[in-house]
Every structure is written in structure tokens, then in C-alpha cells.
Amino acid sequence: MKRIYLLFSVLCLIGCVNAQDRITEIKNRLSDKESGYVAVVAHRGDWRNYCENSLEAIQSCIDMGVDIVEIDLAQTKDGELILMHDRKLDRTTSGKGLVSDYTLAEIKEMRLRNAVNVVTEFEIPTLKEAMQLAQGKIMVNLDKADKYFGDVFRILEETGTVEQTILKSSRPYNELKKEMGEQLDQMIFMPVVHIRDTTTTEQLRQILEKQYPFYELVFQENGEKMVRSCKEALQGSSSLIWINSLWPSLCAGYSDDRALKNADETWGHLIGPLGARIVQTDRPARMIEYLATKHRRQVSMPQEIEKQTSSNVDAIPHRP
Description:
Oligomer: single chain
Number of helices: 11
């Protein structure tokens, strides 16, 4: 009996180490600029097969080898953080009205709707439940986390997921730092850069010179020239370009839907001429398959990851 218990304990420990190695592996691959590896971000989880912002959608992303999952936050009447994109419950759940009008206990009685608006058996998860699931298995991009930062950080500490979490914001880093203090630097901060007609080269230069780990670039057709300039400016740095292929207005028309017709001219354009090393998509499985054909990643991340002889994790800093 003692042998069985000891074996079980060892297997659990090995599983934990391998899970942590997955985060290390993702960071190492991103920090190696010579590898050409492109990271895939699943928008709201694998929502085409499961409900958006659900535990099942996150687990599917883990299973298929997605590098980063993006999830959205909302706060209940009693101050609990849940996964929810909209302020209202109507579109994605069996409930009605504002999230903020219901307690967590009441929301747990509701069920999620799927992509064709059918009520399912799936529950609305809390942020804590989501981070417990993601711990050591997949990086997480938290949308709207800057609105609830104190509560968010407490949950990340409880679940041991601070360093695998990305906080993105359109607000300047210095402004956020005044509110969040040293805790902000323990996470990976990513500025969202909206390239508009009025954006100047000097404005971009000031943002890029701070050397954040990732830069999320949002642009329309007239901003593509500026994106190329960003690629050139970051050529000798460790910073990476993140582009969203979710819909046309985010990426000058090089969207997921267009990729279904011609992936080389869409996703290929984002990772080639525009220099994206991280792409957020609503079709993670298709993108992984495409990138594998271009030798920009494996079809899925192996279950057993060989230990690195030297770690490059520190090459992805948590602060500018």
C-alpha cells in the first residue's frame, strides 16, 4: 500500500513538473527570435467547439497545444470575478440583465449558451476556477484585468499563475504603475497600440523604445506601412509583435475568414511581411495546422517536454 501511495505521489510530482515545463517551453520559444516560432492565441477559448469563456473551451486549447488563451472578466454584485465578455448576460447565458445585478451564487444557477445560441450544460466559471485549470499548462491573456487589478492579482497569487499571465491595456504603463505598484511588474505587461491616421512615426518610436515583451498592434489598411516600420524598429530587440486576425478592422482585412480562402495571403502575410510572432485567432486549430505546414510550430505541443539545458525564460521580461 505504501508503495502504491509513493508511486502515485511521484507520478503527481512528475505531472506537475511537466506542466510547469510547458510554460517554460512557450516562453523559451518566444524568446528565441531565430526560431521563427509563431505563438497562437485562442480568443475567448475554443468557442467554436465549446462555449466562449468556459472551462471546457480553455481545456480544449490546452489539449490542442495553444500557447495563450484570452479570457474576459466581469464582476458580480457581490464582488466576485467571473469569465464574461459582455456587461449583460443575455447573449452568452440563460440569464437576463447585467452581470453586476446578480450574486455569484445566482450566476452559478445559470448556464452558458453556445455559438448558435443554444443553452448548454456548461456553467459560468470564476476567474479562480479558470486559473486553477490553466496553472502551468497555458499562458493567459486577461482582458479587462486593469479594471479589477487588486482582486485579479490576489487570485493569481492564490493560484500560482502570476508569471504566466499577460495584462494588456491601452492605458500607458506609467499610469497603470501608479495604481498597481510593483505587482504590475510581476506580470507580463502588453500595451495595445492603435495605429490611426493621426499616428506619427515619433509616437510609435516613443512607445517601442520602452522594450515591452509584446506589442499588440491594431490597424486598418492605411496603417500597414506603420506596422512594417514597427517590425523594422523591433528587429534588434527581444520585443515581439502581436496581431489579431479576428476580424478585418483589427488587421487591415487579413482576417480568419479570409484565411479560410487563402491562408498564405492572410495569416502568411501577418507572420511574414508584417512580422507577427503572436497571432490571436478565432480558429486556433486551423492556424496551428497552417503554421505547422510552414515549419513555424508543431501541430501540438508534446505531452513530455525535454528539459532545457539552459533556460531563456528571463529573456521575456515582466517590465519595460
